[in-house]
Design brief:
By secondary structure, the protein is α/β, with parallel strands linked by helices. The chain has two domains: 247 residues, TIM Barrel; 40 residues, no CATH class. The protein is built from nine helices and 13 strands. The strands form two sheets. It has a nine-stranded mixed beta sheet. Helix 6 runs parallel beside helix 8. It is globular and about 75 Å long.
Amino acid sequence: MAAGCNLCFAGVKAVIFVTGLCDDHCYYCPVNRNRLGHNVFYVNETPVSSIEDVVVEVARSGAEGASLTGGDPLARYSRTLAVIQTLKEWFGSRFHIHLYTSGRYATREVLVELDRAGLDEIRFHPTLEWFVDRISVAKKYTSMDVGLEIPIAPNLVEWAKRIMKEADARGVDFINLNEMEFVEPNARALLQRGLRESRRRPFTVKGAYEAAVELVEWAEENIRAPVHFCPASFKDAVQTRNRLRRTALVDKKWYESVTPTGTVVYTRIHRDGGCERIEAYPTPSREPIVSVEQIECDGANTD
């Protein structure tokens, strides 16, 4: 897999949502409509308002790298550039950063400047087929790893084969296939195109998994670059869970314990006169899972 994927797999990438602004109108976009089209800024789902906030949140998560996403990060190019430069200054040259873009704004000058700022990896999702040409520019004028990242559904198989061949001919370093999600923001548009949610794989498009497997098998005979399939379930079951756990281990107080899923169990002591009641709570429900009533209620010391 690509270096960025290996770090994501381990949950050591901070996810930086640079902006919700984007001039590509993909019907399958799963981004929440409270974000898409708005100039908002998040790190690991936490709103931030400055580059300094970004550094704090990245450090909090114990990240070893960052992925820059949106929207299209290049729609707010100066912010994106500042994030890359600042993260490299604070965390060092080995702090791996990758970025997702359609390529609409990825001119030669922009790509060269991103490379100089320290961007390690760029992933193109060519919403217009001529955007594939950006791969050639990035390969020729920068030292970045260059990838193709596209969504997969049954109605996109032939398009995907064509785009994969074109990207491969331009020397792309890797190709990632993402199982198309079926979620509230894109559900209406998907239904209008005859796509349905899979009963076997909730929150994904029916047949997307099988289409991805077909493409991987086809790529063995037709594509030089390594091709990787990323199931939608992986993001929650592995990637997000690992990232939550790392953040919780940094944040936890002395009286808290982090669970394997990244939630936190903590204790709370209630005093009513001379009586103490100790309860242990998990997050985020805040309902006690253990309640131990103290016997000594006459003011004597209790353990």
